[in-house]
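User: Hi! I have a protein structure encoded as tokens and I'd like to know what sequence might fold into it. I'm fairly new to this, so please keep things simple.
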């Protein structure tokens, strides 16, 4: 769709959404359907492309590009997992979360406060101490199979752990990680359930 996507429901200054397009996926997808979606970005101001330079001007880093999803206009936008292929001028965001609904690109400003939770229950995922120097204690209020992922400020996964349904506490060693801001994400059934910001200090 060659128009800007709907804005967030409520103020969320950490994100700048694309002003040029969004994608809508529809059809009949059987439960056994598997695949990948590829979404292109291009912030060149000349030549071919010209898609994203108005809201994502160079030299902003593509490391802060994210992929957002919502089932429909009754839902709010939420980040989903993806792999980035390309550079700060052009490339692809590739996801294996192939669901019917709407997708759009966004730029996440890590200098602003970030508190996007997919569910309103902020107790679903907690971590302490925060900031942490060596050990991060993580509590999860979700009794189903799940996975924890820890991302650095560039969006690179620095830790991941799959957990059974009956395990809701884990300790993560962070003493070898660089000082900085990280994002701890909780996933279940291939969907993001919650995400919190954690700080590694010394």
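Assistant: Happy to help. Inverse folding works backwards from shape to sequence: for each of the 202 positions I chose a residue that suits the local structure. Here it is:
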């Amino acid at each position: 769709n060659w128009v800007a996507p709907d804005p967030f429901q409520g103020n969320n200054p950490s994100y700048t959404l694309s002003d040029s397009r969004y994608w809508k996926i529809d059809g009949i997808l059987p439960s056994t359907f598997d695949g990948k979606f590829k979404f292109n970005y291009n912030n060149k101001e000349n030549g071919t492309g010209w898609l994203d330079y108005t809201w994502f001007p160079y030299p902003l880093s593509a490391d802060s590009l994210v992929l957002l999803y919502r089932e429909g206009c009754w839902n709010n936008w939420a980040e989903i997992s993806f792999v980035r292929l390309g550079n700060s001028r052009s490339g692809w965001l590739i996801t294996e979360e192939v669901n019917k609904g709407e997708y759009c690109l966004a730029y996440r400003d890590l200098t602003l406060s970030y508190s996007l939770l997919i569910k309103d229950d902020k107790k679903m995922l907690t971590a302490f101490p925060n900031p942490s120097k060596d050990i991060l204690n993580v509590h999860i209020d979700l009794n189903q199979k799940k996975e924890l992922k820890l991302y650095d400020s560039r969006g690179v996964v620095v830790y991941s752990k799959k957990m059974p349904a009956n395990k809701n506490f884990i300790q993560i060693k962070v003493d070898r990680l660089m000082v900085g801001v990280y994002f701890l994400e909780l996933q279940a059934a291939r969907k993001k359930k919650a995400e919190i910001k954690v700080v590694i200090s010394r």
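A useful reference point when you look it over: Residues 113-121 have pLDDT under 50 and may be disordered. Feel free to ask if any position seems puzzling.
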